Amino acid sequence: MTSSPRPVGQPVRHPDRPPLNRRLAEFGTTIFAEMSALALSTGSINLGQGFPDTDGPEEIREAAVRALRDGRGNQYPPGPGVPELRAAVAAHQERRYGLLYDADTEVLVTAGATEAIAASLLALLEPGDEVVALEPYYDSYAACIAMAGARRVPVTLRPHVHDEGASFRLDLDELRDAVTDRTRLLLVNTPHNPTGTVLTRDELAAIAELAVERDLLVVTDEVYEHLVFDDAEHVPLATFPGMRERTVTIGSAGKSFSFTGWKVGWVTGAPALVSAVRSAKQFLTYVSSGPFQYAVAEALALPETYFAAFRADMLAKRDVLAAGLAEAGFRVFRPAGTYFVTTDIRPLGESDGFAFCRALPERAGVVAIPNAVFYDDREAGAPFVRFAFCKQVEVLQEAVKRLRAAF
Questions:
Q1: Where is the Aminotransferase class I/classII large domain (predicted)?
Q2: Mean pLDDT to the nearest integer, 304-332
């Protein structure tokens, strides 16, 4: 007997089972897509997603053009990354931090920091492992931990109001208490997105001591390493005793040179760790960003004057936005690093960041991101809203004008 044809679009098996893997069921369309669509539909100023509205150094853009014209990188580049970029990453780590890495065995180029995070977690975790991460956290952390079948254990950075203003701080006792016999890995982000916290030397030393004592691996996301302000300093976790051999450090060209669309990132670490990450990475993108890798190699060799000017420019923009938000009635957590400002909306009589951000485009013509999306404990993040200041000063001034008028 010939069976009747199945209607187009009807699943073959398990009609009651949803198409999406259950590990990813909690992750729908990102809030960034939703807020960016709102910005477009309302003509609002988009201070939600963290990408600059101007390009980085002209000589680096021209280096990419030159690589294209010279035929460098137009075909598949080497799996670990082009030798020039791996050498430049190693030289950068030595010059700035005194960290010595072998460019052939201890540096791996990735499709941005997001792939570096994914490949690291997929490589180093097994189902049932626990990962202690600083909450709030970049949303891909939670998704990648889930894809690895591991369990995330958040340690929340708590808001503190003090004489100098307001900031988010890590409770080291809470961090220590979160580590169990099932803990495989610490996932650390400093400078920290979204709070702008930069962990101090003492805090990092305590994290290092804990990792060594409990024999933990550490993945440290340091993509905002060149954006620290005031008296803060960025100190790589791998520089502490016992940490180089257990730490995978992640960097990004997009954040340091304002070419986010190029998607060039990297990891550095001991050979065994980098080899493990490469084993996962090769089955994700395999390779990417060929010509741009040559340009980023030149960018990493730029003189310190570039990084100082870049930092000063972002500091000025931070101060414009932070002051404007305070004048509009927000409580402002002035960031010590990154290019984001977190605010508390309760002084405005608001408490639901999701509702606030969804109404803000119509209300003020500005788009922001509710910090609750970065929390497992949505209640803890509910009153906080993040604004990006990696925009032209005129754009920030107009956003501030709109917010002051609305509130």
A1: 45-403
A2: 97
